[in-house]
Design goal:
The complex is a heterodimer of chains A (144) and B (355). By secondary structure, chain A is an all-alpha fold. Chain A contains five helices and no strands. The two termini of chain A are 18 Å apart. Chain B has 14 helices and two strands, in the order H-H-E-H-H-H-H-H-E-H-H-H-H-H-H-H. The two termini of chain B are 32 Å apart. Chain B has a two-stranded antiparallel ribbon. Chain B is mainly α and 355 residues long. At the A-B interface, helix 1, helix 2, helix 3 and helix 4 of A face helix 2, helix 4 and helix 13 of B.
Chain lengths: 144, 355
């Protein structure tokens, strides 16, 4: 098995096509950093850095959480053996997990802002990158 | 304690930390299926290297590190003990302590006179420790041996704890000169280029490591050469300047590219070529870290987290990505080193005007 499980969303590990993995990695950082900047203002560079940090946090927590449960880790590594509905159910679970972790992390990095204030950009940026993930997933399952 | 003694102690701790990490990673070989093991190793790397950037952001403006070091060694021992019972918790604890030790140890080894040799001594035993930890992997054919070897590694953590308790003189370490969150303000392009440069160096190193993964004696030999190279690089950077030395060392590390890169006793030129390459490649660690420190004089934690953490993690991500594309290992090494020379030239030129 290859090691394409590293990616900046907790769900990113589901992608096993190398070029998508690299693409998703770069696009996630760019898109999420830009959305944070648009919604929260401040310096663009710092928002990109924050995007990197919160994604690192969700990656770390996500991986440790899922490897700790046999069932989940089995689903992770056997992802392509599952049906498409099971795949998307897992993506949904990863999405919720990502939102929770990144929300907490973003609050730590922006203590002057409220949780409520941070939720909107967080939701928008993750919807965007997960939509991309779903697209990659669709392409890799149906077209490749 | 005199300064060199402090750096030697920090380096020793680094070696023990990485030896335990290598041992834990090796333990996964025996206890997990290959898929689970790979996920666990990636999770460990994400925490131990990527995690440094997260911790760096939440450090106070100054601290006394002794208690943190003691806690790290205590937790390393706990991690070893838990290896067979609660494996993922052991991996988590080891990753966490590794991130904290690299970060705080790196900060503590930065000298006030901006000399690089302290960083070289701190960094030197890292891979050698990892190789020693890995060496015990081959004893893992029988799972019961894990308990026996765990004793030695837990004892190493305990001895390190005692050594630090007795010998380490706790001094206030300045981390940030202004109490605010990390910010990238100026010269960002050069700073990003340096991070990229470190990632490329790390990528080349990952491939060399990977090529010799199951040659345990060879790995230790590579570890010894890396050890010497890192110390050498620290002193040479002080003599000739971090930027200039890095450029020359990268060029010198490319020369052995004309020889096979896998360490093999039946291929003496391959062996020598690899070792020369490793020596110069690893000798750039301290100077490259010094370069970043020049950008982040007001925030050492960020510089150390980038150099010892994030850049290594990025190198690893690139390595895994390229590995899946089935590109020949030697081509990756040659390209990474050549590209790093190309990146180092403009950095070297620009820095004459910037710093």
């Amino acid at each position: 098995m290859n090691l394409n499980l590293i990616i900046l969303d907790a769900a990113g590990g589901l992608i096993v096509i190398p070029i998508f993995f690299i693409l998703h990695l770069i696009i996630t950082l760019f898109v999420e950093g830009e959305i944070l900047f648009r919604y929260l203002g401040g310096k663009r560079n710092n928002r990109y850095l924050q995007a990197l940090m919160i994604n690192l946090a969700s990656l770390i927590v996500g991986m440790f959480l899922f490897i700790s449960f046999d069932d989940f880790s089995r689903h992770l590594v056997d992802f392509f053996g599952l049906s498409i509905s099971e795949n998307y159910f897992l993506v949904l679970l990863f999405f919720i997990l990502t939102i929770v972790i990144e929300w907490l992390m973003l609050k730590l990095l922006n203590q002057s802002l409220t949780f409520r204030h941070l939720f909107k950009p967080l939701f928008v940026m993750n919807i965007s990158t997960y939509a991309l993930l779903a697209f990659f997933l669709y392409v890799s399952k149906n077209l490749l | 304690m005199q300064k060199p003694g402090k750096h030697l102690l920090l380096g020793l701790g680094h070696g023990v930390n990485d030896a335990i990490s290598g041992y834990i990673m090796g333990g996964l070989l025996a206890m997990f299926s290959s898929n689970q093991m790979l996920i666990a190793i990636v999770a460990y790397n994400a925490l131990a290297f990527g995690g440094q950037l997260l911790f760096a952001n939440f450090l106070p403006s100054s601290l006394k590190p002794k208690k943190i070091f003691l806690a790290c060694f205590f937790l390393m021992g706990i991690g070893v003990v838990l290896l067979t019972k609660l494996t993922m918790l052991a991996v988590f604890i080891t990753g966490l302590t590794s991130a904290i030790y690299h970060l705080i140890g790196g900060i503590a080894s930065v000298r006030n006179d901006e000399k690089s040799w302290g960083l070289g001594i701190f960094a030197a035993p890292g891979f050698l420790g990892l190789a020693i930890g890995f060496y015990f992997v081959r004893q893992f054919n029988i799972i019961n041996y894990i308990h026996a070897y765990s004793f030695y590694f837990a004892a190493a953590a305990l001895i390190s704890l005692l050594l630090f308790w007795v010998l380490y003189k706790d001094e206030e370490v300045q981390i940030t000169s202004k109490a605010k969150n990390i910010a990238i303000d100026k010269h960002q392009v050069i700073m990003l280029l340096i991070v990229f440069l470190i990632s490329l160096r790390s990528l080349a190193w990952d491939v060399i490591h990977y090529l010799n993964l199951h040659k345990y004696e060879a790995l230790i030999l590579v570890g010894v050469v890396a050890f010497l190279g890192k110390i050498f690089g620290g002193f040479m950077a002080d003599r000739y300047g971090a930027f200039k030395y890095t450029l020359y060392a990268l060029v010198l590390s490319f020369i052995p590219a004309f020889f096979p890169l896998s360490v093999s006793y039946s291929e003496p030129f391959g062996e020598i070529g690899t070792l020369i390459s490793v020596f110069f490649l690893q000798s750039t660690i301290a100077p490259m870290t010094s370069m970043l420190l020049q950008f982040f004089k007001s925030n050492k934690a960020f510089a150390i987290a980038l150099s010892f953490g994030l850049a290594i993690f990025i190198g690893m991500v690139i390595f895994y990505g390229l590995q899946a594309l089935n590109i020949a290992s030697s081509n990756i090494i040659y390209t990474a080193i050549l590209l790093s020379i190309v990146v180092a030239i403009p950095i070297n030129n620009k820095m004459k005007h910037v710093v």
